[in-house]
Structure formats: C-alpha cells, structure tokens
Amino acid sequence: MSTAFDGALDDYIQHLRVERGLSRHTVDAYAADLVKLGDWLEAERVVLDEVDETSVAGFLVSLSQRGLSARTQARALSSTRGFFRFLVQEQRHPHDPTELLEGPRMLAKLPDILNRDEVLRLLQAPAGEKPNRVRDRAMLHTMYAAGLRVSELVNLDLGDVNLEEGFVAVLGKGSKRRIVPVGAHARVAMEEYLTTVRGKWARPSSRECFVTARGKAMTRQGFWAIVKKYARAAGITKPISPHKLRHSFATHLLSGGADLRSVQTMLGHADISTTQIYTHVTSEHLQKMHERYHPRG
Fold this sequence. Notes:
By secondary structure, this protein is mainly alpha-helical.
C-alpha cells in the first residue's frame, strides 16, 4: 500500500477503536477489507486522492472475479464506504466515491457481449446501395455509436438528429432527454440514409427518422429481425438481440478507458450502480494492462 493510504488507514482504525468504540473483531474485519482495497489500488496505480466511483467499482469487481461471496463483497463495500466518509469528514478526500454505489446484487453477470471484431462484422454486413441496406446500416451504426435502447432508436425524430454537430437527442426512460455523441462512421451512414432513402419512403408529414419501404415507422420487432438477419450474415453464432449492441457499447467504452460517470450519462442511467455492472467485463483488459505496465506484473 502507498504511504498516503497506509497513514489514512491507521487514522481510521484508531477512529474506530477510540471514538466509535467498536470491538476488536469488528475493527479487524474492517481493516482486512481495507488492506485488500489498498493492495488493489496500488496494483492499479491509483493514488488515494484519485479514487473515484470507477475505482471502487473495479475493486468490487475484482472481489467477485476472485470468487468471494456476495456477503464478503457487501462487507467490503461497507468498509470502503465508512473509510471514505471518514476521510471526507476530515477533509482529506474531496468526495465519497461510494455514495452512488449499491451492493453486490448489481454485479450479476451480463449476457455475453459482442467483441469488437463481431461488432465490426455486424456493422459491415448490410453492404451495398440497396435502399433497405442503406437504412439498416444507418440504424445499426447509430445504435452502437450512441448505445441506444431499441425503443430509443426506433422513436428517434428527425429533429433529434444533428449530424453537423454529431449528436442525437434521445428521449429515454421517464421521458428524460439526453444528448449523446455519435462518431464519424455513424454520421456518414445516417447522412447517406437521410439524403438518398428516407425522402423516397416517408410520407411528407412524417417525423420518424427510421421508416419502412411503405412509409411506416420502424418497429422494435422489425429492427429485431434486422439485427438477427445481419448477425447470421456476419457469421455470429451466439444469441443476439438489439440490446446486446447496447451492452457492447458500454463495455467497449469502459475497456477503452472511459470513466464510469460518462458512460452512465450516455446510457441514460439514473443510478451509477446500474452502469457498474458493465465494469466486470473489463477485468480481463485491466489484468492485461497490469501485466504490461506494473513493474512486478
């Protein structure tokens, strides 16, 4: 453990013993949990002043990956929460990074995601200039680029799309609107669809962004069939659904270094602990980074 963490831990243990009068057994349990936290932070090269929600979530995920019970994980979160509340009260840490985190019930395993190669193959599957393929390509790119729910994708209004600035305005759960950026590939695919296909299919009064060849709004069921069709064409054999693209979006962002709060905002999660479930999928990436950069890895 670092000197700063070690000193803070000693002060906290003293606080538990003297000011709170906890039993030796309870204090020892708290100390054991926090030693694990300190060791994990040191291994990940995270200094005490920089500990945030992502760091604590990663620590909890590491416990899960080691096969520790939900009870043990919950106690570790409780120990960590008490520790940082003490540091905040003592003005030794800027904020409590555990404030928005919930217990290990949120660490349930996600359905298998698509890896990067599978996503690339899926996005490339609707190749060509046939109108339905141009539309399908735009829908797939937009859903993955922005991490949208399928309902959010099919309900996009023309006014929700700003290709010049590179974002979509999404109406999510609870009628809450959020702004999500989209990358260059999705912008190109969307622009091609809007300029060459939609005007030929949509009714003059229609505001739906994605429509069928009959001019009707695309449905959830219709897009589900599109995803399954192109997954087969891409040679993807694992079970797939539109929501799996959203899972993949979140996981790929986190494994690429995005912070938990940014991903929470883009996904439209009201509670950061909902986003926390994606962090366990990045553990292999973190392990590889540790082995590569840690001097004793």
